[in-house]
UniProtKB/TrEMBL annotation:
Gene3D superfamilies assigned: DD-peptidase/beta-lactamase superfamily, Penicillin-binding protein 2a (Domain 2)
InterPro entries membership: Beta-lactam/transpept (IPR050515), Beta-lactam/transpept-like (IPR012338), PBP_dimer (IPR005311), PBP_dimer_sf (IPR036138), PCN-bd_Tpept (IPR001460), Penicillin-binding_protein_2 (IPR017790)
Originating gene: mrdA
Domain of life: Bacteria
Source organism per UniProt: Sphingomonas molluscorum
Keyword Iron-sulfur recorded: no
Positions of the Penicillin-binding protein dimerisation domain: 64-236
Protein name per Swiss-Prot or TrEMBL: Penicillin-binding protein 2
Example GO molecular function: serine-type D-Ala-D-Ala carboxypeptidase activity
């Protein structure tokens, strides 16, 4: 069926037109309202945003790096401060005709070929506006000569500011750490413009890194009115930076520098602690790097020299070096025996060797010590006495006392890493190796060998607790008064017996007589120690044990010493560890080093006189020796082909990798020293 056609009248057409006109008008009105609303939003709500954008087109604002807070010693002497610095950087995105600009910079600033190679390499690796350092610490004349050429050098940014300075150089390197430019990864993580501001550096290691928030400060702002083409018109008001906080340490800067110099050519560490408060007065790891070089951007040859040095100058041996403590544990073991009920006059006959099962354990004195009581065992460092006691009582008892004295412990100090070593017992071995503890393990541990490992700080803490009778906690930040440490579980009578045995080590015919003080009225109590780093076979014993002087450096014994003074009224305690020192050179050995360090605390003039006598025989002071070593290394590598690499190797990853490699190569595998019939504890 067909649908009837629709009749369109004039009225219908008018209605349809009106309806469509209304809809179109409504749409136009809606669009108008939207546009008006958007204009109102931009003009009112977004006014500040766009005003700032317009202002940024008119005003070029750059951040001014804040001055870092100082690090000072307990008396206010600077350990890390700031110095005026003239520097030049390049902003890669603003650089035009790089070859011409670099040529001008080379001539104006007298840049060596090594620096030019480093700048070119850094420019290839750079990103956007992240600055590339050209030179730091420029003389005023060269800085001024460059400043007048700036219109011809787009992308070159000279700046006058402050750079980090370490007045004592290598003596505080492992204490303070160093600063350096932020990495691209650090900027990508935070997007903080300060990190890519020319001249800004942040902490990369040590206290500079862990105290970064306190030391950084607040950046300032420099505002310059510019044309549409970016040409400067005039300087506007500048907001000054706000310096970081000053951090005060418990360190005595004079003692720190003296101890570093007194270690001489040794590879090792020394820690001095106040027995009244637990304050760390000196914390030295040597050899070390110059933190000023790292902060300025270390050259690749200097980095190569440091990373290949078998004395491991990049490692903080105070906290990261682990060593068998050797005979330094004997006073501690004597305390454990007293607490177990052993009478101090009870004797053990030392014939020079002890057979246990099929093994033979030797004393360091081949002919033996004869009848030996506790005092003589500590003073003469008799191994057989402690072997016999460990066989009777087992080692778990000793381990408990060792932990109470600080071995195997970490401490609340502002450093990112501490290696706490090993204080073993039967439960520890079963858990770690799935094997039961043996008598041989007890004998080895009783003389500080076998599985026992400690760092120099722990040894200094052990000395301070033996001296004070309190569980002192070492502290490095001088924040108010130190809390009173609790007493140890030992009785005053037991502590007096142990201290008397340590007095005998130095002052009554013991093994540490070289430490005897030359200051009237002051005495040292201490304990020497040696720690093997190699296995001595029975075949070698039959043919004659090689002396340390016959061995290469890495196979020689470590030399150790713990001590406190004055013996009758302890105020200071110290722990000293010298890698592969082997007690070969008297004025570089632990007892006489300890004597001079303590002498500095009581009579500085006498201590400096002793240092002046010895230091020339070692090749001069620290800086002189480092310059001589650098010159010799540079001469030896002058003809060698060095692989291209950036000259500024200042990343913590590079340092960390070098330290990890050094740790992995330490010649003391756990439980692989002085086992069974190869044990000895040389003094």
């Amino acid at each position: 069926m067909s649908r009837p056609s629709r009749v369109v009248t004039e009225a219908t057409q008018a209605f349809t037109f009106s309806r469509r006109a209304f809809a179109l008008g409504a749409m136009q009105g809606g669009m108008g309202l939207l546009l008006a609303g958007r204009m109102a939003w931009l003009a009112v709500a977004e006014n500040e945003h766009y005003e700032l954008m317009a202002e940024s087109n008119r005003v070029n604002m750059t951040l001014v790096p804040p001055r870092r807070g100082w690090i000072v010693d307990r008396n206010g002497a600077p350990i890390a401060n700031n110095r005026t610095d003239f520097r030049v950087d390049i902003i890669p995105d603003r650089l035009e005709n790089p070859a011409r600009v670099l040529g001008v910079l080379r001539d104006l600033l007298a840049l060596p070929a090594e620096d030019m190679e480093r700048i070119e390499t850094d420019l290839k690796r750079s990103r956007g506006l992240q600055p590339v350092q050209v030179a730091e610490n420029l003389p005023w004349e060269r800085y001024a000569a460059l400043s007048v050429r700036l219109p011809d050098l787009p992308g070159v940014v000279p700046a006058r500011g402050f750079s980090r300075n370490y007045p004592m150089g290598a003596a505080v390197a492992h204490l303070t750490g160093y600063v350096g430019a932020a990495s691209a990864e650090q900027y990508q993580e935070t997007k903080d413009r300060l990190l890519i501001t020319p001249g800004f550096k942040l902490g990369k290691d040590g206290l500079e890194k862990t105290l970064e928030v306190r030391l950084r400060g607040v950046p300032g702002e420099k505002r310059v009115e510019v044309t549409a083409r970016g040409e400067p018109v005039r300087e506007l008001a500048t907001r000054p930076d706000r310096p970081g906080q000053t951090v005060r340490l418990t360190i005595d800067a004079g003692l720190q520098e003296y101890a570093a110099r007194r270690l001489g050519t040794n590879s090792g560490a020394a820690v001095v602690i106040d027995c009244l408060t637990g304050d760390i007065l000196a914390m030295v790891s040597m050899p070390a790097y110059d933190p000023n070089s790292f902060s300025d951007g270390i050259g690749r040859l200097e980095w190569k020299m440091l990373s290949e040095d078998d004395h491991i100058p990049l490692m903080n041996k105070v906290l990261q070096g682990l060593y068998p403590p050797g005979s330094t544990v004997k006073p501690m073991n004597a305390l454990a025996l007293l607490q177990a009920g052993v009478h101090p006059q009870e004797t053990v006959f030392c014939s020079g060797a002890m057979r246990v099962g099929t093994g033979v354990f030797h004393c360091h004195k081949r002919g033996g010590h004869g009848p030996t009581n506790m005092r003589r065992a500590v003073a003469q460092s008799c191994d057989i006495y402690f072997y016999e006691m460990a066989r009777r009582f087992g080692y778990d008892m000793f381990a408990k006392v060792a932990r109470s004295l600080g071995l195997g412990q970490t401490f609340d100090l502002p450093f990112s890493s501490q290696r706490y070593g090993t204080m073993p017992d039967s439960a520890w071995k079963l858990k770690k190796y799935g094997k039961p503890w043996t008598v041989a393990d007890s004998l080895n541990a009783s003389i500080g060998q076998g599985y026992v490992l400690a760092n120099p700080l722990q040894l200094a803490v052990m000395a301070s607790r033996l001296a004070s009778g309190r569980a002192l906690q070492p502290r490095l930040l001088l924040n108010g008064r130190a809390p009173t440490a609790p007493l140890l579980s030992a009785t005053p009578e037991q502590m007096a017996i142990v201290r008397d045995s340590m007095f005998a080590v130095v002052n009554d015919g013991g093994t540490g007589g070289a430490a005897r003080m030359q200051v009237p009225g002051v005495t040292i109590a201490g304990k020497t120690g040696s720690a093997q780093v190699r296995r001595i076979t029975m075949a070698e014993r039959r043919s004659g044990v090689l002396s340390n002087a016959q061995l290469p450096f890495k196979l020689r014994d470590h030399a150790l010493f713990i001590c406190f003074s004055s013996a009758d009224n302890p105020r200071y305690a110290a722990g000293i560890v010298l890698e592969h020192n082997a007690h070969l050179i008297r004025n570089l050995d632990t007892p006489i080093i300890a004597r001079d360090i303590f002498t500095y605390l009581y009579d500085k003039e006498r201590a400096m006189k002793s240092l002046a006598e010895f230091e020339p025989t070692w090749g001069g002071d620290i800086a002189t020796r480092m310059r001589a070593e650098a010159a010799a290394f540079q001469a030896a590598n002058a003809a060698a082909q060095v692989a291209p690499a950036p000259a500024t190797v200042d990343t913590p990853e590079a340092v960390g990798n070098a330290v990890d490699a050094a740790i992995a190569n330490q010649a003391v595998p756990e439980g692989d020293v002085a086992q069974s019939n190869t044990s000895r504890s040389p003094e």
